[in-house]
Specification:
The protein has 700 residues and is mainly beta. It has 5 helices and 35 strands. Helix content is 7%, strand content 53%.
């Protein structure tokens, strides 16, 4: 708790500094906050909902938020995060609908079971499994607000010995109606309900935006510091599946007393990121009616951009340390120990990418009625790996330098209510990824019908991708490969989505074909006795590429039903992989949430009281490798199925004015039915426990 209070104090001091900065700016330049746009509208011309489901007094008029895309800096407005519904799932490593496999502890590495929801691997893929807390530029939320806006969130898992805590803060302030700054802090500490499993993350960042008529700018600086203890899973699954067989005369075996495969092993990832996108607009002013009264009409001059010149800069510095002190343990568990008894191995990556572009805005150019953009980008990458020499125990650092020059263009239609589309193409013309290309498009058709709007959406892509660096080269204490002969990965996807807002129905379905699918495989070697019986396995991993074609079929149905104060939200996902041994996916993955929703104390207090359940069918889910911090396919000689086990939580959500909080009994069904509660092979989820969360908004 001392750490949490220190963070709150730090945030308070920072907010006071920024408030003083605002006063100084207002004194020097004049406060323009009163002129902040009160009527932000989406691309369909509809007002942006900045109050969500609560009254207008809670959110000052004019508060609105948005995200940007990382190539052009285009703005997409998003609702202010004030919703009560499903608040109890916002801190769940398993995701809002339980769609992720993970290792049990808060913040531990995770992988979506829904294949179409998985992001492409980044060049520094070690932080990809931590996307609960690691934010990319397109994930950062910018805010424009009349008054200083602060959100504090605190989550706690109660356990007398090994609980979990997470503290999040978000602060935004405007110097005037165009320029705003802010910061966020995300501190997570999970002691772990199983041995040698703790997570300790400290992430944070600063952001700033300027949205003028002619000049626009968005800036982000953030840092990620992720330290995770690795236990290699429990030593024997029967501690969970058949606890009486392992109790050794005890009535109960505590989770933190269960033996694990590894101890004194850590993965430590650190990252620093700078992102800035800016554009200069050419255009004209036109008159616009601002307000109408009984006696007058107020006319203002509105700037209309016609052509934009764009520049985007992204700088990334990443480092990873794998720390393992017990050499005797390493010799027993791993097949290879390339660095001898060295306790630490490291890898680093630095990258700088510049993109320049020109955009012709929609409707103002006779040769481009739709929006038309062209761009060129250049990326320089430098990777550092440990190399050995011919001299025993001698080490040196090997540097692998790559560069990529790409060109591309975008055609888009964002205005109007009926039809919107966006088509983007990019081709690498020189450098390490030469020949790599990406063509993707999406669109939506909005049809008014019977007082509702039916939305038909489609997205498709064709990608010819060079495998990321660490698939091609990786040198470490236990794994070592150089794969210079990997072919490019060809992916083709077509997906559609149908939405009925009034009925609460969403259906999406798609199909994808993958050629040269590249993946990590568990290639552990069996240890046998004199009679050939397998006693154990010595761990190893390798990058493999399936040169044939793999097809993935997916369909997801989401339905919301309401009967008075009784609500039922459901999601059913069906998936089929043509090569389950290469790309394993569960055939069915389901989520259900049954709750009552009502107002108390003259509807001042909003209440949700209910239970939700997560379930997926059995399959050979990807295993997890501590030595590289990634999920990989199971060893064909030692495969186990997980799944076919419901996880049930009971909760109460409450919302009082500016405060949201919940209380949950997590995994309430522990001990009933089968006890196969694993979301990754040999990594059980946490046993029954109580969770609590609080989120508080301040506007002064």
């Amino acid at each position: 708790m001392k750490r949490i209070f220190s963070l709150i104090l730090l945030m308070f001091l920072c907010s006071q500094v920024m408030l003083q900065a605002q006063n100084t700016l207002n004194n020097n330049f004049g406060s323009s906050a009163s002129g902040l746009s009160m009527g932000q509208r989406d691309r369909n011309g509809n007002p942006i909902d900045t109050t969500a489901v609560i009254d207008a007094n809670t959110i000052p008029i004019g508060l609105y938020s948005w995200k940007i895309d990382s190539r052009f800096g285009n703005v997409t407005f998003v609702p202010v995060d004030t919703l009560t519904h499903a608040f109890q799932n916002t801190n769940d490593t398993g995701g809002m609908t339980g769609q992720y496999n993970y290792l049990g502890n808060l913040g531990s590495p995770r992988l979506s079971r829904l294949f179409f929801d998985r992001r492409d691997a980044s060049q520094f893929f070690f932080t990809d499994p931590y996307d609960l807390t690691v934010l990319r530029p397109e994930d950062i939320i910018f805010t424009n607000t009349l008054s200083p806006f602060t959100n504090l969130s605190y989550y706690k898992t109660f356990d007398s010995r090994n609980g979990e805590e997470r503290f999040k803060s978000y602060f935004a302030i405007n110097a005037n109606k165009r320029f705003g700054v802010g910061f966020y802090i995300d501190y997570l500490y999970g002691r772990g309900l199983y041995a040698s499993q703790s997570t300790a993350f400290f992430n944070g960042g600063l952001f700033a935006s300027y949205r003028g008529d002619k000049y626009n700018m968005h800036f982000i600086f953030n840092n990620d510091n992720l330290k995770m203890a690795e236990n290699g899973g429990i030593a024997d699954d029967r501690y969970i599946t058949n606890p009486l067989d392992m109790a050794e005369g005890k009535k109960e075996y505590k989770s933190y007393d269960i033996p694990t495969n590894l101890n004194k092993v850590w993965n430590h990832n650190t990252s620093y990121h700078v992102f800035m996108t800016q554009r200069y607009n050419l255009g004209f002013h036109k008159e616009k009616i601002d307000s109408v009264t009984k006696d007058s009409v107020r006319i203002i001059q509105e700037f209309v951009p016609v052509t934009s010149f764009i520049h985007t800069l992204q700088v990334d510095l990443n480092g990873r340390k794998y720390i393992s002190y017990d050499d005797e343990q390493n010799q027993k568990y791993f097949e290879h120990n390339y660095l001898g008894n060295d306790s630490i191995d490291k890898t680093r990556r630095s990258s700088i990418k510049n993109t320049i572009g020109i955009s012709l805005h929609e409707g103002f150019n006779k040769w481009a009625k739709a929006g038309l953009s062209a761009f060129m980008s250049y990326e320089y990458r430098n990777f550092t790996l440990t190399d050995t020499t011919d001299v025993p125990k001698e080490r040196r650092l090997g540097h692998y330098k790559e560069s990529v020059l790409s060109i591309g263009g975008e055609l888009s239609k964002r205005q109007g209510k009926l039809l919107h589309y966006n088509i983007l193409g990019e081709l690498a013309i020189a450098g390490e990824d030469a020949g790599q290309f990406n063509i993707e498009g999406n669109g939506d058709l909005n049809i008014p019908l019977f007082g509702d709007t039916i939305r038909l959406e489609a997205n498709a892509f064709i990608k010819n991708q060079n495998p990321v660096f660490y698939f091609r080269h990786f040198h470490s204490k236990h794994y070592w490969w150089n794969n210079d002969d990997l072919s490019k990965i060809m992916r083709t996807r077509l997906e559609g989505k149908l939405s009925f807002d009034k009925w609460g129905t969403t259906l999406r379905a798609g199909v994808e074909n993958i050629k040269n699918y590249t993946y990590l495989a568990n290639t552990s070697v069996p240890v046998k006795d004199n009679e050939g019986k397998i006693l154990s396995f010595k761990n190893n991993a390798a990058v493999e590429q399936y040169t044939g074609n793999i097809q993935v079929l997916s369909a997801v149905l989401q339905q919301k039903l309401k009967f008075g104060i009784l609500h039922l939200d459901g999601e059913v996902a069906y998936q089929k992989s043509s090569k389950q041994d290469i790309l394993p996916l569960p055939e069915l993955s389901m989520y259900g949430n049954l709750y009552i929703k009502t107002g108390l104390a003259k509807k001042v207090l909003q209440l949700e009281l209910g239970a939700d359940v997560r379930y997926f069918t059995k399959y050979y889910a990807p295993d997890y490798s501590p030595a590289i911090g990634q999920f990989y396919n199971q060893n064909p000689e030692d495969k186990i199925e997980i799944g076919s086990y419901p996880i049930v939580n009971v909760y109460a959500n409450l919302h009082l004015k500016r405060t949201r909080f919940f209380v949950m009994m997590y995994h309430i069904n522990q001990g009933s039915g089968s006890s196969r509660y694993f979301l990754a092979p040999h990594y059980p989820i946490n046993p029954r426990t109580i969770k609590f969360g609080l989120s508080w908004n301040f506007f002064d």
